[in-house]
């Protein structure tokens, strides 16, 4: 299964994002929500945005594997998604405003979802010999 490393990477990133929120909740003594703490609000948004896009990205990677897309194509889509999510998280973590990392991260995330979506249909209809 060629998508397995991406499941590992995204699982570890999920734990990292959750840990960062827990650490800030303890630091600022905030049990629920962001307590009006801008740093915590950004980290909550990092995690929220992450869980909004990663599940679909992983489902599409599974789809690529299922339709027997070329391994190189799966890796392009997987690496693009992974880099996108990392850059986006870094960008939001550092500033509340728009940043180059944040914008690049979203662009890479959208590119991965677009390429994966197209790839699933291409290989599903045209076969692995494409």
Q: Could you name the key traits of this structure?
A:
Four Helix Bundle (Hemerythrin (Met), subunit A), 130 residues
Counted up, domains total 1
Shape descriptor reads elongated
CATH topology type: Four Helix Bundle (Hemerythrin (Met), subunit A)
> For the record, what CATH class applies?
Mainly Alpha
Which structural class fits the helix and strand makeup?
Answer: mainly alpha
Outline of the structure:
With 130 residues, the chain is mostly helical. It has helices spanning 4-28, 38-66, 71-94, 100-126.
Folded structure, characterized:
It is a single chain. The chain is an all-alpha fold and 130 residues long. The protein has one domain (4-124): Four Helix Bundle (Hemerythrin (Met), subunit A) (Up-down Bundle), CATH 1.20.120.550. It has four helices and no strands. It has helices at residues 4-28, 38-66, 71-94, 100-126. It is elongated. 28% of the residues are buried. The mean pLDDT is 94.
Sequence-ordered SSE layout with sheet pairings:
Elements (H helix, E strand, L loop, with lengths): L3 H25 L9 H29 L4 H24 L5 H27 L4
Helix pairs in contact: 1-2, 2-3, 2-4, 3-4
């Amino acid at each position: 299964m060629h998508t397995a490393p991406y499941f590992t990477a995204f699982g570890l990133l999920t734990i990292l994002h959750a840990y960062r929120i827990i650490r800030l909740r303890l630091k600022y003594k905030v049990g629920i929500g962001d307590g009006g703490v801008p740093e915590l609000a950004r980290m909550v948004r990092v995690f929220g945005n992450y869980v909004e896009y990663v599940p679909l990205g992983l489902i599409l990677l599974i789809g690529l594997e299922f339709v027997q897309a070329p391994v190189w194509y799966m890796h392009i889509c997987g690496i693009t998604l992974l880099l996108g999510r990392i850059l986006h998280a870094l960008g939001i973590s550092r500033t509340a405003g728009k940043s180059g990392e944040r914008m690049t991260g979203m662009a890479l995330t959208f590119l991965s979802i677009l390429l994966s979506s197209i790839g699933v249909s291409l290989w599903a209809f045209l076969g692995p010999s494409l």
